[in-house]
């Protein structure tokens, strides 16, 4: 009889396939699951999972830990919430390849578009980055190790910057530049990238308010890069959509190159109530025609916590172009201008046809220096109690506190009936945690525990088996991640044990634990009994166990660990 490293007994096994759960055991040896069901024999350690669920580790397909992995090998907070595999390099962003002379530009772009602290990036990455090329970046990740498994997308923006320099933010590419980019993409796939990512979202502005480099790419460039990715063995293309890269263009790329495409993101309320349904219908028709198209959806309202020196939620509006182009003092002057305030009121009124329409009625004050009693209370309520218009009050408070005051409101995905329609659509894929990005503005890295606690237990919108399938096998298979996402003999031993009665994402907390003491929002998890990565116990009772240098995660080159 084989002696096991770990035996988990008497739990409800939900294997990730969507099949009904059943009471049983799981046996683990040498990082793999060796038996599921009734497990005989001794083990070095045994866990009694009576009353608990045993499931595969969760697979988060949309994160931005590209820089953070260099200084935070734990990749917090994802494993707190049962995530054992994460995909980085989404939306065309990343930190490789990067020439030394482009490092500031890349970090400034991440600061602007992904809400990352420049000071934290500069301190965390150091003065001498341990990589330049994409292959060197992959080697650096693997050499450092990580707590959870990582798969990497090759991002369009750093590749374009590597080839074109500052011109990447100014113009389309010429033939030689496209050829050079295509070669880098192909080499990235050979180095182990799982796919290629890009963005043409109109909300994606880089340093100085300029479009991020990928937005300047035409379809000739896009076609060549997807072709190179496929030639190199890419499993998937991820795109953040825009007016020139949406259903028709993505369907063409997918069909021509026979590759799945997942796009970010299909959310409730993007352009008014019910607007998601036409995109669902278009997707349904494309899928019926055999097109491998997979829109990503989110299970949480897309909240942004911001201050008006970096008013990310409003940067999509033409009115705020002048704000993005101004320095801090210039922004203050604009905010004082009564004409700007009047235009701001009109542009975001309840009946305006844009994503920030009516924001005031969804907004709370999240930080009020000198007036903590205002925090977490509605902006309108506090403003009216002072006899002021809410926009005047918000801008005055921002100016009086030198932009320290903060505000929070959901931009989209806050209509729960509509979100339920998206979550129940099997043509769609759960993603958009954005873990590692917008650290001081939002925290959706807790999406997995929120899904299981809120949408399964509290709302009853999803069955537990269905939700776990959405968190495990479904994303793993789409992204070509091998031997993970299921509880089955010979599969890698990525396992989560949780209490279905108590699992939840906790209230957001602001901490200052990034390099240079930069702040971020985090959410503690409840109900997570254990997180096991490649057979190693990583988290037990919501706490990391063992030596901090024990990092059981693996770099998944082309979807598989070495």
Explain the overall architecture.
The mean pLDDT is 96. Strands 1, 2, 3, 4, 5, 18, 23, 24 and 25 form a 9-stranded mixed beta sheet that branches. The two termini are 28 Å apart. Helices cover 31% and strands 21% of the residues. The chain has 562 residues and is α/β, with parallel strands linked by helices. It is built from 18 helices and 27 strands.
Short précis:
The chain is an alpha/beta fold and 562 residues long. Strands 1, 2, 3, 4, 5, 18, 23, 24 and 25 form a 9-stranded mixed beta sheet that branches.
Calculate the terminal CA-CA distance, rounded to whole Å: 28 Å
Q: What profile does the largest beta sheet have?
A: 9 strands, mixed
The gyration radius over C-alpha positions equals 23 Å
The count of strands amounts to 27
> Roughly what percent helix?
25-40%
Q: Give average pLDDT, whole number.
A: 96
% residues in beta strands? 15-25%
**Helix count from the secondary structure assignment:** 18
Global geometry: globular
Structural class: alpha/beta
**Low-pLDDT ranges:** none
């Amino acid at each position: 009889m084989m002696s096991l490293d770990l035996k988990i007994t008497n739990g409800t096994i939900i294997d990730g396939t969507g099949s009904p759960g059943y009471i049983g055991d799981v046996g683990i040896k040498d990082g793999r699951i060796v038996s599921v069901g009734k497990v005989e024999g001794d083990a070095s350690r045994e866990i009694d999972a009576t009353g608990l669920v045993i499931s595969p580790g969760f697979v988060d397909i949309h994160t931005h830990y590209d820089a953070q992995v260099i200084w935070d090998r734990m990749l917090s907070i994802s494993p707190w919430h049962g995530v054992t595999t994460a995909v980085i390099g989404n939306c065309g962003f990343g930190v490789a390849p990067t020439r030394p002379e482009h490092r500031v530009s890349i970090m400034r772009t991440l600061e602007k578009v992904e809400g990352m602290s420049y000071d934290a990036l500069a301190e965390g990455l150091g003065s001498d980055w341990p990589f330049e090329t994409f292959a060197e970046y992959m080697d650096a990740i693997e050499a450092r190790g990580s707590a959870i498994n990582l798969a990497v997308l090759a991002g369009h923006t750093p590749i374009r910057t590597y080839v074109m320099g500052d011109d990447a933010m100014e113009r389309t590419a010429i033939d030689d530049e496209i050829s050079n980019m295509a070669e880098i993409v192909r080499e990235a796939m050979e180095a182990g990238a799982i796919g290629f990512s890009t963005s043409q979202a109109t909300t994606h502005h880089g340093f100085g308010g300029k479009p991020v480099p990928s937005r300047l790419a035409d379809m000739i460039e896009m076609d060549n890069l997807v072709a190179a990715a496929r030639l190199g063995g890419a499993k998937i293309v991820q795109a953040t959509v825009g007016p020139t890269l949406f259903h028709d263009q993505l369907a063409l790329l997918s069909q021509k190159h026979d590759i799945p495409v997942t796009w970010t993101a299909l959310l409730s309320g993007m352009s008014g109530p019910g607007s998601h349904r036409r995109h669902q219908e278009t997707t349904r028709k494309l899928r019926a025609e055999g097109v491998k198209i997979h829109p990503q959806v989110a299970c949480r309202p897309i909240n942004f916590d911001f201050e008006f020196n970096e008013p990310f939620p409003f940067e999509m509006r033409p009115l705020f172009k002048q704000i993005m182009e101004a320095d801090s003092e210039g922004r203050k002057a604009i905010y004082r201008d009564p004409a700007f305030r009047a235009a701001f009121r009109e542009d975001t009124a309840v009946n305006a046809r844009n994503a920030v329409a009516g924001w005031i009625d969804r907004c709370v004050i999240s930080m009020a220096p000198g007036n903590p009693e205002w925090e977490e209370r509605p902006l309108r309520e506090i403003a009216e109690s002072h006899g002021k218009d809410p926009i005047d009050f918000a801008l005055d408070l921002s100016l009086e506190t030198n932009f320290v005051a903060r505000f929070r409101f959901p931009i989209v995905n806050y209509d729960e009936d509509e979100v339920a329609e998206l979550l129940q659509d099997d043509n769609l894929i759960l993603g958009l945690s954005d873990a590692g990005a917008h650290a001081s503005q939002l925290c959706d890295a807790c999406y997995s525990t929120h899904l299981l606690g809120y949408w399964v237990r509290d709302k009853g919108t999803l069955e537990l088996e269905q939700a776990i399938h959405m968190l495990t096998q479904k994303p793993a298979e789409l992204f070509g991640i091998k031997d993970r996402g299921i509880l089955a003999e010979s599969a890698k031993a990525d396992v989560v044990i949780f209490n279905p009665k108590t699992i939840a994402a906790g209230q957001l907390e602001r901490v200052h634990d990034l390099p240079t003491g930069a702040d971020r929002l985090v959410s503690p998890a409840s109900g997570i009994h254990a997180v096991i990565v490649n057979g190693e116990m990583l988290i037990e009772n919501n706490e990391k166990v063992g030596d901090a240098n024990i990092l059981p995660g693996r770099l998944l080159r082309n979807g598989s660990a070495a």
